[in-house]
Amino acid sequence: MGDHKQRRMTVRFSQGLPAVVLVSTALACASCSSASPKPAATPSATHLTAAQVLPPLLQCFIDHRLISQSALQSGKDNVPPDDSSTWIRDGKVTENEHLGAWFSDNSAIVIKGNTLGDWMTAVEANRKAWPTSICGAMPAVK
C-alpha cells in the first residue's frame, strides 16, 4: 500500500493533478476487477508529449541558428499565418496551434543529420535522446 502512495506523489509532482486522479482510479479499478493484483501502470518518466518537447527543442535549434530564417518565415502567407511571428514571443517559443501548423509543414527540416520530426519522435520516446551535444541539458518540462 505504501508503494501506491509513493507513486501517486511522484505522478502529482511530475504530471499534475489530472494524472493523480487517473492513477488513483486505475489503482482502485485494478483491485476491483481482478483477484490477483497487478502492478499499477504509471506514466513513464522517459516518455514525453509533443507539447513538452517541441517548444524547448525548437528554442535550442533557433538559438543555435540551426533553422534558417526562411524556414522560420514559412507559413507567413497562410491564412491564418503560422510563421514564427505567431509562436515566438519575446524571443521565446510558445506552444500554440500556429506552432503545431508550422511544425506540420516543416518537420522535414534536417538538423545535424536528422529531420526535426525525427528529433521530436526520439525525444518524445526517451528524454535521453535530447541533443545534449547541441543544446546542453534538457530543460525541465511540465
> Which strand-content bin applies to the residues?
5-15%
Shape: globular
> By helix and strand content, what is the structural category?
mainly alpha
Strand order of the largest sheet: 1-2
Radius of gyration: 19 Å
Number of domains: 2
Summarize the structure.
The chain is mostly helical and 142 residues long.
Give the helix/strand layout.
Blueprint lengths: L1 H14 L1 H17 L16 H14 L5 H4 L15 E2 L2 E2 L3 H10 L3 E2 L2 E2 H10 L6 H4 L7
Antiparallel strand pairs: 1-2, 3-4
Helix pairs in contact: 1-2, 3-6
Written account of the structure:
The protein has 142 residues and is mostly helical. The protein has two domains: 2-33, no CATH class; 50-135, no CATH class. Helix content is 51%, strand content 6%. The protein contains seven helices and four strands; from the N terminus they run ααααββαββαα. It has helices spanning 2-15, 17-33, 50-63, 69-72, 97-106, 116-125, 132-135; strands at residues 88-89, 92-93, 110-111, 114-115. The strands form two sheets. It has a two-stranded antiparallel sheet. Helix 1 packs antiparallel against helix 2 and helix 3 (50-63) crosses helix 6. The two termini are 27 Å apart. 15% of the residues are buried. Residues 1-43 have low confidence and may be disordered.
